[in-house]
Each structure stands twice: as C-alpha cells, then as structure tokens.
Amino acid sequence: MLIDLKGKVAIVTGAGRGIGRAIARTLAAEGVTVAIIDFRQDLLDDAAMEWTEAGWPGLRILCDVREAAQVNAAVGAVNEAFGRVDILVNNAGVASGARVEKLAEAVWDANFDTNTKGTFLMCQAVAPIMQRQASGRIMNAASFAAIIPSVGGAAYAASKSAVVQFSRVLAGELGPFNVTVNSYSPGMIPTEMNGFAKLPDARQQRLLDTLTLRQWGNPEDVANLICFLASDQAHYITGASIDCSGGKYATQFPSAAYES
Ligand SMILES: NC(=O)c1ccc[n+]([C@@H]2O[C@H](COP(=O)([O-])OP(=O)(O)OC[C@H]3O[C@@H](n4cnc5c(N)ncnc54)[C@H](O)[C@@H]3O)[C@@H](O)[C@H]2O)c1
C-alpha cells in the first residue's frame, strides 16, 4: 500500500515538541505542507530550524488553542497562505490532576480548556473550509485514560473521554461533506508531559508490565497511524476511536505471558 499525501495541507496543534512534533515531521516527510501551531515561541523557533534544514514548506503559528480569537486567526492564516486545509490533527494537550477531594477547580479547567475546548475551537474553525472542499480528515488526540483512567486523573480522563464523544458527534455532522473525524488514544510514550523515561527503574517496569508488547511506544508510532488515517486508504474509517498503546491491558495481566 502506497500512502500518498503529497500536496496536502495539514494543521497540527501542539507540534512544538513530543508526539505532535513527530506527527508534523512525518507528514512533512510524506510531502505535506504542515502548519505547526504551538503556544511556545521557543518550540516554534526550534521547529522552524528543522523545517528550513529539511527544505520543507509550511508555517509556524503562535497560538493558544484555548483562545477562540487566536484559533480563528491561525486557521485564517493557513487558509490564506495555502487556500485549503486537508488534515487537522488536534494533538495539543495537557495532563494534570489530583484525587477528586483535593482537585483544584483551576486544574479541572486547565485540562478541559486545552484538551476539550481547544479541540472544539479548532474543529469549529476548520470545518467550514473542509465542508467547502467536500473533503477533509480530522484526528483528535484522546488518551488511553479515556479507555481505562488512573486514580488521580479525573480531570484529564474526563476531558479526554469528552474528546472521544465530541469526535463521534462531529463525524456524524461532517459525514455528508466527505470529512472523516476520528479520535486516537496514545499510551505509554515517554515524553516531557509524562516523564516516564525519568522514573526509577522499578516504576518503569510496573508500567511496562501493563503492556502486551512490554516496551515503550515512540512518537513515530502515533505519527504513522495519523498518516494512515489522513490518507485516501482510510476514507471508510470515521467516528472511530483507535488505541495505539502497545496493547495496554488487552488482557488483565499482560506480564503473565512473559513469566510463563
Ligand atoms: N505521551 C503519551 O504517552 C500520551 C498518552 C496519552 C495521550 N497523549 C496525548 O497526546 C498529545 C501529545 O502528548 P505529548 O506527550 O507529546 O505532550 P507534550 O507535553 O510533550 O507536548 C504537548 C505540546 O502541546 C503544546 N500545548 C499545550 N497546551 C497548548 C495550548 N493551549 N495551545 C497550543 N499548544 C499547546 C505544548 O507546548 C507542547 O508542545 C496530548 O494531547 C496528550 O494528552 C499522550
């Protein structure tokens, strides 16, 4: 199967670092013009250097996805520069939490503002462009926490579960316009967000024991899924929620297979 994304235009949010950066890089290497959105200028400058060195076309836009005016301006800038938006990846996310009785209202809001409202605002800004084109692919970052949440993760898990249901509704609404909308759930990919790689060995092992493949994932594993979902070959997949987590808890005790 040859995935051909040449000439397409993508927006990837939170693409300054981590999984988002790998998604943007992988799409760019496939010939996609990528507009990188992030709210940190230092990360955008770093991405600009990589794009210049590689000779990839694209844009870097400073934008906080929690702010409607900034989102509308960013999407408008991409539309003005390239005349279309074929692919939208809502990757920007934050994770913070505490047990419910100690969970500050501000922490609850922080998770929902970025993870859920940011995704909604971006989709609302891009949808009319995709409707006009009668084509488009939207992929929204949920999390394994939307499948099985962790103690202390109520705000994050609830905000990501909301992304899954939001994506299904939007898939229904944009189906008549040949626009697909899916959510995806990464799991166990060491990044600066979760600091897995810096945990003591015993704690790392405990987490790895939850995985069928018993190994950390790479940001590129998610990026490859996104490339497929963005391709013509994935035209019949919409309203789905796809798990990319090394088979986390595919069975109750995945480590049993390694012990026997
Ligand atoms: N790493 C994992 O194992 C894992 C697991 C489940 C879900 N996810 C999800 O994948 C996505 C990427 O995670 P990551 O581990 O690469 O995180 P990360 O913290 O390394 O990267 C997040 C990026 O989003 C940007 N960002 C945050 N808030 C923003 C805002 N308001 N506006 C614009 N940009 C903003 C940050 O500057 C950063 O560049 C997130 O949505 C996360 O919830 C990751």
Give a quick set of tags describing it.
single chain; alpha/beta; 44% helix; Short-chain dehydrogenase; 15% strand; 8 helices; oxidoreductase activity, acting on the CH-OH group of donors, NAD or NADP as acceptor; binds nicotinamide-adenine-dinucleotide; 7 strands; 260 residues
Question: What fraction of residues sit in β-strands?
Answer: 5-15%
CATH architecture: 3-Layer(aba) Sandwich
Provide the succession of SSEs.
EHEHEHEHEHEHHEH
The largest β sheet comes out as: 7 strands, parallel
Query: For the terminal residues, how far apart are their CA atoms?
Result: 37 Å
Q: Count the DSSP helices.
A: 8
* Secondary structure category: alpha/beta
**Helicity range:** 40-55%
Q: What molecules are bound to this protein?
A: nicotinamide-adenine-dinucleotide
As laid out across the biggest beta sheet, the strand order is 3-2-1-4-5-6-7
Topology-level CATH name: Rossmann fold
Number of domains: 1
Low-pLDDT runs of 5+ residues are none
Secondary structure: number of strands? 7
CATH superfamily: NAD(P)-binding Rossmann-like Domain
Please state the average pLDDT score.
Answer: 97
* CATH class group: Alpha Beta
Shape: globular
